[in-house]
Amino acid sequence: QVQLQESGGGSVQSGGSLKLSCAASGDTRCMAWFRQAPGKEREGVAAIARDGRGEYVDSVKGRFTISRDNAKNTLYLQMRSLKPEDTAMYYCAAREFWCDLTGRDTWAHWGQGTQVTVSS
To answer: For the chain, is the Cβ count within 10 Å smaller at the N or the C terminus?
Structure first.
């Protein structure tokens, strides 16, 4: 069982930046960031394979960058040009197959989440 712990959330103004981190207790092939705003379904934001190949949801392309440090078993999400609509609880997830944003319910491991709030 892989344990995931997110950090780095906070409150920023529109146009600001934040960098999220997710520390994993072990190595996993695929990792991703999801987010869930109040009253909305959880959506995939970005996913990354062990070799660094990433995928993004259209709404964050060009603003967010997903990366990982395999030696440290740590996942990152650099968020720039933040908008109020990016406000959500952000979750880290991991699984051993499909290093993309398909199959939201097939991600085997989840963190507890870190809150990101963007004010206008």
So the answer is: N
